Amino acid sequence: MGTSQVSLTVNDAAIELDDFVQRFIDHVVGSILATLKGTGEINSVDINIVEDKITIDLNNKVVPTNPFVSDITRNVITAMVSSLKGVREPNRINISIRR
Which of 17, 46, 58, 89 is 20 to 30 A off residue 97, Cα-Cα? Predict the structure, then answer.
């Protein structure tokens, strides 16, 4: 993995990320995508979670997911984001990664 730009908003508020957290999010998201069939190289990723719905855009294309994959991905990301300082009740999460 090369240098990535990672941004995170929670409930429409930008969350400041140090280098460790940026790398951590990048690796977690990269690992999730690597387990999905046919995802290929990652140049850009946008993950949007609104309450119980998740959309994953990889290289400007929506990645189709079944209910299990959607649930486990949403739960992992929500748990990770909930652990960050200043984050409470994350109902809307957006992760943007550019490589």
Answer: 89
Supply 13's token pair: 């508020």
Domain count, the chain: 1
Q: How, if at all, do strands 61-62 and 53-58 pair?
A: antiparallel
pLDDT tens digits for 49-59? 999 999 999 99
pLDDT of residue 2: 60
pLDDT confidence of residue 3: 74
Q: How far apart are the first and last CA of the chain?
A: 8
- pTM confidence score: 0.93
Q: What's the one-letter identity of residue 88?
A: R
Q: In what order do the strands lie in the sheet with 92-98?
A: 13-15, 5-10, 92-98, 44-50, 53-58, 61-62
